[in-house]
Amino acid sequence: MKKTVFIALLLLTCANSKSQVKQAFPIGHKIAIFKKDPAKIYFPKGKLDDFTNKWYSIQLIGLGEPVLYDTKSTDEIYRFTWLRSFDHPIAISIIKKGNSFLLTWKECNGSGGHEPGKIIMNKQRAITKADWDFFQYRLKQLNFWQLPTTDPTSTGADGAKWLLEGKKPNQYHVTDRWTPGVGTDYYKCCDLLLSLTDLKIKSDRKY
Predict the structure, then answer these.
(1) By C-alpha distance, which of 191, 172, 165, 171 is closest to 180?
(2) Average of pLDDT values for 151-169?
(3) 183-199 pLDDT tens trace
(4) Which residues of 56-78 are buried (b: 16+ CB within 10 A; e: fewer)?
(5) What count of other Cβ atoms lies within 10 Å of the Cβ of residue 11?
(6) What whole-number distance in Å separates Cα of residue 123 and Cα of residue 94?
(7) At what angle do helices 185-195 and 129-142 cross, to 10 degrees?
């Protein structure tokens, strides 16, 4: 009887240990499943480490997104790339084309911490100047153009990566944060773009 109880407890302990390892496994390490280099790199060398640049590039290729930093377009563009460890990767762009304003959003059926999968949503719509102006206000609150690209204190196990890029003629910047806190300027800026789409994200999947 004692032996049976011991074995049962041992199995339970092992199961719990596996669960804890899965929860604590850093999101970036899961990208080891990618065996090939991406067809193109989406961020300037030196902005992000090579491993991270490769990971993000593979996700953006999967989302069918353009490279922003070397585009010749004169449009003003900002892109929020949302890579959640266990949920669909999403990219949302807000674009100023002359006197018109456009929002685009895409979603793949994979996950931000694994393969991106295939595109399951690709939409766009015109937005108002008021929408654009409010986003600019959020950028100003964030001090986006002067914000460091990375933050050594912004890291953790699993969670999500929130990338925000900006491109003007002759100017480009990218910022990369891990699961910013609700109510922070970074969260508010990216969440505004999310609110302008028709994406329905459950509260427990918004991280």
Answers:
(1) 191
(2) 89
(3) 999 999 999 999 999 99
(4) bbbbbebbebeebeeeeeeebbb
(5) 10
(6) 12
(7) 160
Per-residue buried b or exposed e for 132-147, using 16+ beta carbons within 10 Å of the residue's own CB? beebeebbeebebeeb
Written as one letter, the residue type at 16 is: N
Give the number of residues written for the chain: 207
Domains of the chain and any CATH numbers: 27-205 (3.30.1560)
pLDDT interval class at 153 (50, 70, 90): confident
Find the distance separating the first CA and the last CA of the chain, reported in whole Å.
46
Give me the percent of the chain exceeding a pLDDT of 90. 76
Of 30, 57, 62, 58, the residue nearest 165 (C-alpha): 57
